[in-house]
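Entry for the shared binder. Reason: the reviewer on the internal report wants the predicted structure included alongside the sequence.
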Amino acid sequence: MSMTLKRISDRTATVAVIGLGYVGLPLARAFASKGFRTLALDIDAAKIKSLAAGKSYIDRIPDAAVAELVRAGTLMPSADYARLKEADAILICVPTPLTRQREPDMSYVISTVESVAAHLTRGQLVVLESTTYPGTTDGLVRPILEKTGLKSRADFHLAFSPEREDPGNPNFNVANTAKVVGADGDEALALATALYGAIVPNVVPVANAATAEAVKLTENIFRAVNIALVNELKVIFDAMGIDVWDVIDAAKTKPFGFMPFYPGPGLGGHCIPIDPFYLSWKAREFDVPARFIELAGEINTAMPYYVIERLAHALDKRFSRGINGARLLLLGLAYKKNVDDTRESPALRLIELLEERGAAVDYHDPHVPKIPPTRHYGPIAGRASIELTAEAVGSYDGVVIVTDHDAVDYTLVARAAKLVVDTRNALKEAPSRANVVKA
């Protein structure tokens, strides 16, 4: 079996998607909904069992959508990687996290590509979607695949196409967002362009895989740097008695030359807190400093500490007590509003730091009933969201708004809480109260 343009155009190609998280599952759904026979592979047996039963584990993908595709036979969940031999195209969507030392952790990519190599067949198209440093596809993925004796361009096709998922965004998804594609050779580029062109409105081919890898990093570095800028402005303006939210609201009325970004308690999600450091790490290989990236990282990673100091100051000023021994409630565990995604959420870091200082911390999040297992915050996994009532809110020494979900009664919070530290300007419409501090 060999990937061909005809097999793409007549929808007879089989697509395998490896890694069924916030990127892989929407991608598999997109191909399956277009009639492609789609293998959905993951090492997590719970995910496979859920999908096989027609159940989704991601908020924005309804159960009915999964059940329909499984019944139709276009979405085929499996943990059997031997089935990769059935695929014409193999799309890799696995995590690329950082170590605690902010260096790339490529272990998921390496192990997955090794699994692909074990079942690689002639004519297959292999595409990496995981965000990574420029040179990964050519310098890491290709050598592993070529250990099989098969060669890129001659025996199989290799490409990179960065994911552009934005959890919680109601306007854009994988099916209506342009796809960037870079590849090892013209034939691989043509095949990857045609394949993604079957599910998205516009495919943007670029010179090579490294360029496509750089595109993704540039998109996320743009956001990270600008968020760092407004986080720094928040600290500066607060010292001057100026509300940074008022400043941004007024500045964004200018129809040109300004784009609003908003401060917060720190960065979250799998992209913005991580991806910039992939480039700064790679830049060191070429003796090139990445000063903007590193400085933005310093500012953004300092934000949880800033929030805690604002909280400590407020507790001391109002109640003549510190964080040690305080009972605190965090509102919002997900990294952004109206999603269930907790990856790299600053709320997790805040819980860790507050409990290190002797606080007892609970949380409420309408989208996250329990804290899922994570790489760095294992001890708090399984902790459950509390019910948000006036009585409960009033029992805490302080409430910290970390994520501004719409499904939270902020009027209740403002009225019932002894102290609120608002990191998202969530109480801007709530009754003005002296118990609210912005951070």
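Summary line for the report: The CA atoms of residues 114 and 144 lie 7 Å apart.
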